[in-house]
Amino acid sequence: MKKFVTFYILICIFAVYYQKYKTLKISDYTYHLPDERIAKFPLDVRDNSKLLIYKNGSITSDVFSHLPDYIGKDDMLVFNNTRVIRARIEMQKETGAQIEIFCLEPYEPRDYQLAFAQQYTCQWKCMVGNLKKWKSGILKKQLICDGVETELQAERIGCYDNAQLIRFYWNNSMDFGSLLDFCGCTPIPPYLNRKTDEIDETRYQTVYSKYKGSVAAPTAGLHFTPQLLQKIQNKKLTQCEITLHVGAGTFRPIQQNDFRKHEMHVEYFSIDLLVLRKIIANKGVLTAVGTTSLRALETVYWLGVKMLKKNIGIENIHLEQWEYYSLPQDVSIEKSLNRICEILERHHLETLFASTKIMLVPGYEFRICKRLITNFHQPQSTLLLLVAAFVGDDWKKIYQYALENNYRFLSYGDSSLLEL
């Protein structure tokens, strides 16, 4: 009887899922984005960007420096404090062929902090430009790092998850993070259709970035200045930080019209026990600064639900792309997050380290966040699907308003504050 009930519940979940998404196609989530509307460079002043405010179905417009006027005193802003690494390394074969190595994420060791602290050698998952010209052999690059002659070598050692495994060697005790700072370039988005400029070294980075690991910026945070953060603090608005390292997969287009067949990339994140306690105390009235913060926060909720349902360990904890549909749907925020806190405290840990492939699409019911600060995203992208999930069909009205009122789009573009 128990097996039959379980099977019946699974059938019901599948039926609800199928009915909800059977008619949704990625072709329904597109719009015409003229090239001249893409912000190729940042504004001179970060918080001079426009701010679209969407609330109760209505749209108004302001400047980003006035953001605190639209955040309630009981709300809490959640920032992603990841830092973009200089992930692109340009190398050359003896034949003269140019090879670009794009470091995606560490492979050995897999922990980001340990990977950046490595000396002499490490292994990374990478994308390789002009790969057909690099059949075999070791690439070499001569550098001057802090006045010291350094030779960086790169060797292909295999493939992993559609990426190349690259072993790096270098001939001094400099850590790999510092080495990247000397020899790498900032990986600006491909849709900017230009080479990295000097301004990108500072402006494709949030002013509050701390922990290296991203290959793309959490762009909603690019609008904040130290002065604006001070203004938020003076208003005594609650703030907290999480870390989610943004992967290159954030730019990967959805190629199947049935977007359920799109495979999300894995992203690694961490959240402190103290932050979890703040969220519980704040009763989940949160404003996520960026889609990365939002994905991490929603993942945290489901991981708590998963911990309640299953006896799972705290190590290598992960949420699959659609896993939330197989979990109980009626667990409160407090109960879910308290479960994570209990397990962290039992293991004498201050931070939850986890990974996620969660894909948030129209029909999803948001559990933690009530407001979202985000830029204007590419047509037919996972990020646009997330916005459509957050505001429903009004995403079309929002984007049409932005197009008609000369908003700037994509990473260096203007911003919006969206409220459920």
Tell me what the structure shows.
The chain has 420 residues and is an alpha/beta fold. The model has no long low-confidence stretch (mean pLDDT 92). The chain has helices at 2-21, 112-117, 176-183, 200-203, 226-234, 273-281, 291-309, 333-346, 382-391, 394-404, and strands spanning 50-55, 58-63, 76-80, 82-84, 88-92, 98-108, 121-129, 138-145, 148-160, 163-170, 184-185, 211-214, 238-245, 267-272, 286-289, 317-319, 351-356, 369-375, 415-419. A ten-stranded mixed beta sheet has the order 2-1-19-18-15-3-13-14-17-16, with helices on one face. A seven-stranded antiparallel beta sheet has the order 8-9-10-7-6-5-11. It has a two-stranded parallel ribbon with strand order 4-12. The longest helix is centred in the N-terminal third of the chain and has 20 residues, at 2-21. It has two domains: 23-83 and 205-419, QueA-like, CATH 3.40.1780; 87-185, no CATH class. It is built from ten helices and 19 strands. Helix 7 (291-309) packs across helix 8 (333-346).
